[in-house]
Amino acid sequence: MNNAKVFQGGKISVIEELDDYLESKNSDIAPQVYLMNNLKLIDFSSLTSISHILNAVQQELNSSDKAAIIIEIK
């Protein structure tokens, strides 16, 4: 990705950073969000609601200690 924002670290810190970023873009269209968790890449780009993105990421991170979140910036 040429233009992306990456949050990585413990699950609490990445969720907080994602929440802060999404709140700052509240009036914009929801960005394309990807989660790298263990050995898988999860694509949340089909979710259009910021609350749905946050809930889906939180559910995926329930069983993890660390992760990386990638937000594609257009």
3D structure, described in words:
There is one protein chain. It is built from 2 helices and 4 strands; from the N terminus they run βαββαβ. With about 70 residues, the protein is an alpha+beta fold. It has one domain (about 5-70): Methyltransferase, Cobalt-precorrin-4 Transmethylase, Domain 2, CATH 3.30.950.10. The chain has a 4-stranded antiparallel sheet, with helices on one face. A hairpin with a 2-residue loop joins strand 2 (about 30-35) and strand 3. The mean pLDDT is about 90.
Average predicted local confidence, pLDDT: 89
Q: In sequence order, what are the helices and strands, one letter per element?
A: EHEEHE
The first-to-last residue Cα distance is 10 Å
CATH level-4 homologous superfamily? Tetrapyrrole methylase, C-terminal domain
Strand content: 25-35%
- Spatial ordering of strands, largest sheet: 1-4-2-3
Indicate the CATH class.
Alpha Beta
Tell me what the CATH architecture is: 2-Layer Sandwich
Q: How is this structure best summarized?
A:
This protein has 74 residues and is of the alpha+beta class. Helix content is 35%, strand content 32%.
List the helices and strands and how they pair.
Blueprint: E1 4-10, H1 11-24, E2 32-37, E3 40-43, H2 50-61, E4 66-72
Helix pairs in contact: 1-2
